[in-house]
Amino acid sequence: MVSRFRNIRWAILPALAALCSLAALPASAAPVTLSYANFPPAPTFPCVQMERWKQEVESRSEGQVRIDTFPGGTLLDAKDMMDGVIAGQADIGCLCMAYQPGRFVVTNATSLPLGIPNARVGSLVLWDLYQKYQPQEFAGVKVLTMFASAPANIMSKKAVQSLADLKGLDLRASGGAAEILKAWGANQVGMPMSATPEALQKGVVQGLFSSLEVMKDLKFAEICKYVTLTDTVIYPFAVVMNIERWNALPPAVQKVMDDLREEQAEWTGTYMDTHVQESLNWSRDTHQVTVISLSEAEKAEWNRLLQPITDQWVQSVGTDTFPAAAIVKDIQALIQRHGR
Ligand code: 3IO
Question: What global pTM score does this model have?
Answer without folding.
Answer: 0.91
